[in-house]
Amino acid sequence: MKKLLAALLAGCCLLLSGCSLFFPGVEDSSGGVSEPDPTRYSAEYSGGWCYQRLDDRLKTGYVEVYTAIRDSFGRDEQVTISDSVQGSSREYLGLRVDLSEPLHSREEAERLYTAITWDNPQFFYIGNTYSYEGYRAGNVDNYDVFCLVFTMNAQERDRAARQLEDAVDLVMEGVADSPNGGMTGFDAELLMHDRLAERCTYETRAAGEEDPAAVYPSAFTAYGALVEGRAVCEGYARAMQLLLHHAGMECTLVTGTDENRVAHMWNLVTVEGKNYHLDPTWNDSGDRLSHAYFNLTTEEILRTHTIDAGNIGVDTCTAIDANYYRRKGMYLETARRDEIAAVIAREIEKGSEEIDLRFSFSTFASARLFVNNHDLLTQKVNAQLKGTGLTMWEYENYWVNETYNTIAIYKK
Fold this sequence. Notes:
Structural class: alpha+beta
Strand content: 25-35%
CATH architecture of the largest domain: Roll
CATH topology of the largest domain: C8orf32 fold
CATH class of the largest domain: Alpha Beta
């Protein structure tokens, strides 16, 4: 038998789930070891998007790694990660897990790591370095040890988990355990999406670093987005996933590239039984919020994104029912100014201070000219508002997405 070692750096840059959300350490931070029951956390992981799509052998590994993460939350352990190629090793805070059913390839190790980290945004302290080791028997590789690296010690993890729980509670206020409460899945998703955008700003400093995850590790996590208020696309996507899970909605992560072939991450979410692509990062442009990337079909998202082949369970999305513009009555197939003005007036009567519209391809150019004519649009909207005591508010700038034919107008 030949001993095998490997260390990997994971790539950097998410309707009822059937799983029970928890915040690690908040309920039990004693660090004590629970009784050896391999199914004691099954309510937490059994509905996981990636978990459900693993074969039985990898599911066994998933359960063992998940259980070890939960049991070790309150204590610090050192792991040695060796690199057989470089001939070196290094000590990390982390976790060493013995697997009862060995992995047989690099691809299986990557799939296991991906499944664990993509299903569980609450494990925000798991770093992007992991390793596996084992032996070769005959012509078969058997990796029976799996190691994870943590970015925080036990005390830091406990404090951060409590902060994250508090932040989630604030964002979730009024959601009423949707979709089982009075709020629809779409309404819950929209409320959480918009509150995330209010709370988080894109971490632009990370782009200038050679290893951004090492310099700004929290920016790639739900903790960074919801507690620190700064994140890159991965942090936005994991935060959105955590919130949706908390509302009892299925959501996973999607990796790919943007139009400039830069690595990117967003979500695939199940809303009222149908799947959609949701990109919370690209909907948040600083102090301006739009919904151009809110619940798109696969055909639509592929206009600006590419989807990596290695994603787990990312099927073709064709539904349009929960697209923001269609559900909110903001999709217009008309170029008639009075009809456009009527929709804007309706939103002003609701108290809206931003109006986000989408037009058909044939009407977009005319609609854009109309919005650009401030005086004419104001005149037409005020005519619709006559007798209400309201008037069209002042607007200076508006945001246009030519790919999706959207126009967002913001109160000055």
